[in-house]
Amino acid sequence: MSRNRKQDSPIKGHPLTNQRLLLLELLRDTEGHVDAKELYRRASARDDSISMATVYRTLNLFKEIGLIDEMRLGKIRCYYEVKQSPQHQHLICQGCGKVMELHNPYFQKLVKAIQREHKFKVTKAELYLEGYCPECEEKEKAQ
After folding, report:
1. Same-domain pairing of 50 and 96
2. 132 and 71 housed in the same domain
């Protein structure tokens, strides 16, 4: 009796189905952040049998087992990205909703100073700043 090798490859005790594999691939290929609706749009373009419920269940599974981070940045929507450093920052455009990564050495220095001054071990530090990207700022000036 032959078995599907993908079914035998567990993600920490969970079978790696074709749909989970597709969603993981899409998340890894995404530069930046993606919300569930956009992930569904991309996935359904490649596999029309995938449902929005499958996307949400898979995102929850990936979050539970530590493959991805879920962030509520600015608005009510959640954004997802493949797990990165426990210390990173984001810029969120209030005009178009774009989420951009921000890597600033001053943030790392601030975290270290806080750890030193308060004798507190920081295990996770998140920062996000809201404003307008250059394109939205330009549109605002033109009006």
Report:
1. no
2. no
Q: Tens of pLDDT along the chain (143 residues)?
A: 334 444 444 466 778 788 988 998 898 888 777 889 999 999 999 999 999 999 999 999 888 877 887 877 666 677 777 766 666 677 878 888 777 777 778 888 888 899 999 999 988 777 778 888 899 988 888 87
Question: How distant, in Å, are the alpha carbons of 3, 11, 17, 38, 94 from that of 103?
Answer: 45, 30, 35, 25, 20
Tokens coding 134: 């250059």
DSSP string, 37-72: HHHHHHHHHH-TT--HHHHHHHHHHHHHTTSEEEEE
Range of the domain at 27: 1-84
Q: What is the pTM of this model?
A: 0.58
How far apart are alpha carbons 28 and 4 in whole angstroms? 23
Shared domain for 101 and 69, answered yes or no, is: no
Cα separation, 45 vs 49, whole angstroms: 10
Among 40, 61, 84, the domain boundary falls at 84
